[in-house]
Amino acid sequence: MQSSNTSVYAVGDVAAFPVKMFAETRRLEHVDSARKSARHAVAAIMEPEKTGEFDYLPFFYSRVFTLSWQFYGDNAGEVIHFGDFSGKTFGPYWINKGHLVGSFLEGGTKEQYEAIAKATRLKPAIEDLGELERQGLGFALTASQKPSSSSPPLVAGSSNLVIEKPLHAWYATAGVIVAASVATFAYWYGRRRRSKTGCDCFRNSDNSVNLCLPNSIRIEFEFEIW
């Protein structure tokens, strides 16, 4: 995501970036891609020594009333359907060059969605398409239990979110200090003016008196810090 200018990063669903599992550069127009690419860019800027390459698993989803589906990977190759299309849970697998490259599931549980995501990332070899159709969702549940042959590179996650919290806390603390300082100075200055004149005076820019009010009249000022 780092551009030819090393201080500029291209992120979001309008930016194209290398997708490792496709071995090519693509633009993935979805909110998940936009969020995760931005998080990874921040992590790469803040902690480059701890941040590896962006190994993103393409992900799309939608929810309409009682219908809900999730898709992972690529919709390339031969399609193998599974499940009961008259029921609530069904979907297809995409097999390309003998490997699982994409999975779609309608009406799944959290565990089932996680299973098809992991199985798709593993890209297991598929030798018998008929057996894959017979196993259906069970294939992904079984494949997802197998350990990966290699650990994936670090991807920005919760670590870069932790960085943001101290920054917000610092800004909030600084804002409170500034507000308290302004209020304290205003109170001290007002008391000092009243003790000398017995009234509150408001002056023009040329220091000439514009308006004086007795001390019994209370005037309040509100400060907002943006």
Automatic annotation (TrEMBL):
<feature type="domain" description="Monodehydroascorbate reductase 3-like C-terminal">
    <location>
        <begin position="57"/>
        <end position="140"/>
    </location>
</feature>
<keyword id="KW-0285">Flavoprotein</keyword>
<keyword id="KW-1133">Transmembrane helix</keyword>
<dbReference type="Pfam" id="PF21791">
    <property type="entry name" value="MDHAR3-like_C"/>
</dbReference>
<keyword id="KW-0520">NAD</keyword>
<dbReference type="GO" id="GO:0005737">
    <property type="term" value="C:cytoplasm"/>
</dbReference>
<keyword id="KW-0560">Oxidoreductase</keyword>
<keyword id="KW-0472">Membrane</keyword>
<dbReference type="GO" id="GO:0016656">
    <property type="term" value="F:monodehydroascorbate reductase (NADH) activity"/>
</dbReference>
<dbReference type="InterPro" id="IPR036188">
    <property type="entry name" value="FAD/NAD-bd_sf"/>
</dbReference>
<keyword id="KW-0812">Transmembrane</keyword>
<dbReference type="InterPro" id="IPR016156">
    <property type="entry name" value="FAD/NAD-linked_Rdtase_dimer_sf"/>
</dbReference>
<comment type="similarity">
    <text>Belongs to the FAD-dependent oxidoreductase family.</text>
</comment>
<feature type="transmembrane region" description="Helical">
    <location>
        <begin position="169"/>
        <end position="189"/>
    </location>
</feature>
<dbReference type="InterPro" id="IPR050446">
    <property type="entry name" value="FAD-oxidoreductase/Apoptosis"/>
</dbReference>
<dbReference type="InterPro" id="IPR048618">
    <property type="entry name" value="MDHAR3-like_C"/>
</dbReference>
<protein>
    <recommendedName>
        <fullName>monodehydroascorbate reductase (NADH)</fullName>
        <ecNumber>1.6.5.4</ecNumber>
    </recommendedName>
</protein>
<keyword id="KW-0676">Redox-active center</keyword>
<keyword id="KW-0274">FAD</keyword>
